[in-house]
Protein 1
Amino acid sequence: MNFYNKIILSGISILFFTMLISGCDDTITSDELDKRVIPDSNIDYYTHIQPIFSVKCASSFCHDDGTRAGGLSLTSYGNATADLSIVFPGDPSVSKLVWAIEGTGGTQPMPPPGAAPPLTENQIKGIKTWIAEGAKPGANKP
C-alpha cells in the first residue's frame, strides 16, 4: 500500500469513528425531556423517572454523587429510594421528594429558581404516580 492510500484510509477511518461517536450521543436536553409525556400509570423508573432526575436534579451539581445537596443523590434508583422519608413507596403525600418538587410541607421548591429548569406538571404527576405505584424500579433497566 502506498503512502497516499494510507493517508486516505486513515482519513476515512477517522471520519467513520467521528460519525460513530457523535451518532451514539444519548444525552437528552431539558427541552427534549419536557416534551416527553409520562403515562398516567405503569410508570417505569428507568424510562420515565431517572431521566428527570438526571437532567433536572443531578446535572446541576446539586443531587449528584459528589455534591449530595441536602444529603441526597438522585443518580440511581438505589440512591433515590434509600431513605423512606424521601420516597415513601405507596404514599406520595408523605414523601419529602414530592414536598420538595411541589414546594409544599414548608420546603422551598426544587429545583431552586435559576438552578435548573423547573419540572413540568406532567413530570411532577409522573413522579407522584411512580411513588403511589410503589416506587418500583421497573423493567427497563439500562
Protein 2
Amino acid sequence: MKLFIKYMVSMRCKIAVKEVLNKSGLHYIMVDLGEVEIMEDLSPEQREQLRLALQSLGLDLMDDKRAVLIERVKNTIIDMVHKPNEAMKTKLSVYLSQKFNYDYTYMSNLFSEVQGTTIEQFLISQKIERIKELLIYDELNITEIAYIMNYSSVAHLSNQFKKVTGLSPSHFKKFKSIKRIPIEDVGKGRK
C-alpha cells in the first residue's frame, strides 16, 4: 500500500517516518521523500493513528489526489536541486510531464492555485537555498556551483541570486550569519 506524506523533505524526515512505522508495527518496502510503501493494508483506525503520529513530527498523511501530486512535484524538484543529475539538464516542464504523466499546464495551474507560487519560482527558490548552503560550506567556488546547479553562466547565477536575496553571492559569503530558510518553507507562496 502506497502512502503519501506531506512535508517529508529531508533524510531526517525519512528516518523519523521509519521510526514511526516501526513503532506502529508496520513493515515498509520503501520510504522516500513524500512517499512510503508498506506491506499492510491499513484499517481506518490504523490510518488515523499513523496520521496522528506523523502530525506529532510536523508531517501529514495525505488523501487528496491533487495534494499528493503537488507534494510529489515539490519533492521531485527538491531532489533535483539537492542531487543534481541529468534531470536538471532537461526542460522542467518536459521532465515533470513525463515523470507524472500529466499535462504540464494542468500541473502548473494546480501548483500555482494551491501553493500561491509557480513551479518555476519554487524551483528558483530551492536552487537559491541550495546555493546559499554551498556558499556557506565553502567547498566549491562560484563557477563550480554554477555548473552543478545547471546555470548557463556565473553571471546568470549571480543575477538570479541577487534578484532573490538582494545580495551578490560574494556579499552573501561575507554575511554567513544570514539565516537560511528551512527546506520545507522554501518556495511557500502567499497564503
